[in-house]
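Input/output pair, single chain:
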Amino acid sequence: MHFDIIVIGAGAAGMMCAARAGARGRRVLLLDHAEKIGERIRISGGGRCNFTNRTVGADNYLSQNPHFCRSALARFAPSDFLAMLERRRIPYHEREHGQLFCDESAGDIVDMLRDACDDAGVKWAFPCAVKHIERHAGETVKRYSVATNNAAFSCQSLVVASGGLAIPKIGATPFAYRLAEQFDIPVVPPKPALVPLALAPELLEPMKVLAGASLDAAARFEDTAFRENLLFTHRGLSGPVILQVSSYWQMQEYRPGRKRPIDIDLLPGLDAGAWLAEHRQGRVHLANLLAEHLPRRFAYEWCMLQGGEKLASRPLGEIGRRDLEAIACKLNGWPLMPAGTLGFAKAEVTLGGVSTDALSSKTMEVKAAPGLYFIGEAVDVTGWLGGYNFQWAWSSGWVAGQFA
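Output:
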């Protein structure tokens, strides 16, 4: 059975690609090893799917080539995806930081993409596991053969949209990376991204008293900082601000040298040194003063960690200037060294993937393998939390569908 295009992976990028290619009149087969398509879409955003963001740019993505994503994002922008939703009359709303969610159900987007594929004449094969792929050198019509557990297919163009390693419980596999290696295409080692961070036992044990505390905070790694909710857990650090900064902390794995910690600002937007100095002549205890901006239990336990009962229940006027300056520095920049992450099972997405050096940023085609394309999470392009990764899926999928 021959097709113009075979797309492997019926997720966000794969369905977008297949629908676009089919709309161009290409004969398309879309296959997936899972029994249900678009599960990643269905479970995202608490079932409402944070499908894009009002403001999307290259600065919202991490990659060994930070400029690679510019072309695809410009060719299919958030406004283009919103136009699809509006034609379908799918209601949506905006939350903080420009995040856009479905009003009703993420299933609305899955249905929209599936119908777009059906309208474009796309053929489906799922569940259908790929067993082997072969490239036919010198041929232009039948470039690739795809052997599956159901049947054998051939195609002129093969698009790999099988995703990364995040959330293995819904079927994530290293398929894309293994195929890339089969064809000698470089892969940036994949790592968990947008993921909670674990702390070493010697650091975690005294901090367990903070578990369950949630507060507005800023987290910084090197020159990058985010401000959102921070959650202390029995395993380490979580919450949106940690997920955001975790990707940047993970990036240092690709660089030689000593690992650096992240810095937590417990009083973002407030100069802790000046604020403490203002109250130094009073009789207020440090923990009580901190409770003006931090949860009361957290304020007390944090002071206990820094200096015990003498610090927590001591009037500011009795704390030495140098000690108070040290406390202020920690309040605005508490250094914590993660021991690692909680892994792909807890990660939102994958950092790394098929090297962008091997791909055309205009078409997503492998430069050294005509007719072979990689899109979506399989590629070394990782977005921030907030709809950016779905937008990369839509954009890279649309571009490949336009040119494959």
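Residues 197-341 form a domain with the Elongation Factor Tu (Ef-tu); domain 3 fold (CATH 2.40.30.10). The mean pLDDT is 96.
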